[in-house]
Design goal:
This protein is α/β, with parallel strands linked by helices. It is 30% helix and 18% strand. Strands 1-8-2-3-7-4-6-5-9-10-11 form an 11-stranded mixed sheet, sandwiched between helices. Strands 12-15-13-14 form a 4-stranded parallel sheet, with helices on both faces. Bound molecules: threonylcarbamoyladenylate and magnesium ion.
């Protein structure tokens, strides 16, 4: 299959594919998604096939308008509207009890559904044009690093999907916060740009399910994830990072540092910036480019303040086997 890249001016062609039961990759402010009509089980199955995704990992359903949530869930708690006021559209997914309208393949046979309203204008226009809810995971091969550009999507899925919609480089750069609203205390199943501190403006208490794996509340979290195809390690300090780099070099390896350029002192480096926001924006592109050139990736551990917590969540998975 030929994979075609289109611009936002040609969205009606993308919507046509979705209406005919096909799949299309599209930009969002977090990462690129691979979408299908959420109400068409055989279309949704094509997503799992193209990604090589395990069937027991549920998909997030993407909507353009708030009112479109009603048919998909059995009840909308009032706090949903408070969250919507502050964070929607944006990088927040809420887990609610699903209605019979949502096919079981979308939610991996579960009783809940993740709902997200992306803020990227092309995503919103695409979903509106489709006139159906769009089930979509990140548009990467399962377990690989999530895509933040069209080129990343092509690198993983060229020839496996009919179309990618161009939308520039994803602003946020890491996947949405997943917040479970079906538990007594709202629980963060996956940290993201909407942080626990921000959610505490709405709730008196928010729990974090950092070891979601144990209870498999967000089944996706139990899999090896976000993994580059070269060995990657996290280094706690610049000193340790430089030392490890020099050691690897002396052993004949081809290492690279992921840190601000000036800190590398002339060593091979991919600059991922300094602030949590910059690092979130750059990290996946950096891992993808590092894996094609180098054989050993040394990441300087970022601060865990704010979005840094979510970045560290992904990095600890990218480097899980070391
Ligand atoms: O930013 C994002 O969320 C991106 C863009 C494309 O919207 N999507 C994304 O989807 O990251 P995916 O499939 O790569 O990750 C979805 C995560 C998985 O860990 C999955 O287990 C969890 O959300 N999830 C989805 N539905 C759920 C549900 N009903 N209950 C608990 N966890 C759920
Ligand atoms: Mg993913």
């Amino acid at each position: 299959m030929e994979t075609e890249i289109i611009t936002a001016k040609e969205l009606s062609r993308a919507a046509q594919i979705i209406r005919e039961g096909g799949i299309v990759a599209f930009p969002t402010e977090t990462v690129y998604g691979l979408g299908a009509n959420a109400l068409n089980p055989s279309a949704v199955e094509k997503i799992f096939l193209a990604k090589g995704r395990p069937q027991d990992n549920p998909l997030i359903v993407h909507l353009a308008r708030l009112e479109d949530v009603f048919p998909l869930v059995t009840e909308v708690p009032s706090v949903f509207f408070e969250l919507a006021d502050r964070f929607m559209p944006g990088p927040l997914t809420v887990v609610l009890k699903k209605s019979v309208a949502v096919p079981s393949v979308v939610v991996a046979n579960g009783s809940t559904v993740g709902i997200r309203f992306p803020s990227h204008p092309v995503a919103r226009a695409f979903i509106s044009e489709c006139r159906c809810p769009i089930a979509a995971p990140s548009a990467n091969t399962s377990t690989h690093v999530s895509p933040t550009t069209v080129q990343h999507v092509l690198d993983d899925l060229d020839g496996k999907i009919p179309m990618i919609i161009e939308g520039g480089s994803s602003d946020v750069g890491i996947e949405s916060t997943v917040l479970d609203l079906t538990s007594e205390i709202p629980t963060i199943l996956r940290p993201g740009a909407v942080t626990a501190e921000m959610l505490l403006q709405v709730f008196g208490r928010v729990d974090s399910c950092s070891v979601a794996i144990k209870v498999a509340k967000a089944p996706g979290m139990k899999y090896k994830h976000y993994a580059p195809r070269a060995t990657a390690v996290l280094s706690p300090s610049l000193e340790a990072a430089l030392e490890l780099y020099d050691k690897k070099r002396a052993e004949g390896a081809n290492p690279v540092l992921l840190c601000p350029e000036e800190k590398a002192h002339g060593r091979n480096c991919i600059d991922i910036g300094e602030s949590g926001e910059q690092i979130a924006h750059n990290i996946y592109a950096a891992l993808r480019s590092a894996e094609t050139i180098y054989d050993f990736i040394i990441i300087l551990k970022p601060s865990e303040e704010g979005i840094g917590n979510a970045v560290m969540n992904r990095l600890s998975k990218s480097t899980a086997n070391e």
